[in-house]
Amino acid sequence: MAQNFRNYLTRNISTVATDILPAAQVDSYDAVVGIRLANVHASTDIEVDVYIVRTNNFYLIKAVPIVVGGSLELIDGGSKVVLHSGDKIMAVSDTASSLDVVVSYVDAIST
After folding, report:
1. In this structure, which topology does domain 4-110 adopt according to CATH?
2. Where do the domains of the chain lie?
3. Left if phi > 0, otherwise alpha if psi is -120 to 50, otherwise beta: which for 33?
4. pLDDT band at 90, cuts 50/70/90?
5. pLDDT score for 3
């Protein structure tokens, strides 16, 4: 069976929670295989939260620091996060226009 690898890119995330994988992208059971967080601020270290929204917020990471010019691979080493239809992933930074995110996922692993 062919796999549908996808990515979703979000730029300059600020202090307001932002969809980094909106519910509209999750149309069945999908597997997130990577989340790369990059601090793009010119002079400030940042703290970041990333969480899944279903009926509540379920944190993947909370208040993680990322240094100026640094990045963090949130899902690595072959791990995966399975999402149900309608789930979305949100991210927020403590600093304005400071975070770029790349989410890599496999679309429709099952229905």
Report:
1. Jelly Rolls (2.60.120)
2. 4-110
3. alpha
4. very high
5. 73
